[in-house]
């Protein structure tokens, strides 16, 4: 089980959290200028890296706040946790 440090509540068990998918995805726009291919890519194509992966998480069983988490996909080690309004940290790939 992962131990995740909520930036608002502190360390908690993984069971209190839900992953919201890949972080830092930019919505294309304005909508009337976006091609079907670009819209499909935005909706369905996600990275599947080996190593550091930026994800959105919510502390569903606690404060209900969303935050970002960097997780190593090989080991599930949590590399960094940061609030939604904080800049993306530099992490080794």
- Order of H and E elements: EEEHEEE
**Largest sheet descriptor:** 4 strands, antiparallel
Amino-to-carboxy terminus distance: 23 Å
Mind telling me the C-alpha Rg? 15 Å
Under CATH at level 1, the class stands as Alpha Beta
Short key terms for the protein model shown above:
4-stranded antiparallel sheet, mainly beta, 93 residues, two-stranded antiparallel sheet, Folate-binding fold, 1 helix, globular
What this model shows, in words?
This protein has a single domain (3-83), classed as Folate-binding fold. Helix content is 10%, strand content 35%. It has 1 helix and 6 strands, in the order E-E-E-H-E-E-E. The protein has a 4-stranded antiparallel sheet, with no helix packed on it. Strands 1-2 form a two-stranded antiparallel sheet. A hairpin with a 3-residue loop joins strand 1 (3-6) and strand 2. The chain is globular and about 45 Å long. The mean pLDDT is 95.
List the helices and strands and how they pair.
Layout: E1 3-6, E2 10-13, E3 18-22, H1 36-44, E4 52-58, E5 66-72, E6 78-83
Antiparallel strand pairs: 1-2, 3-4, 4-5, 5-6
Provide a quick synopsis of the model.
Helix content is 10%, strand content 35%. The protein has one helix and six strands.
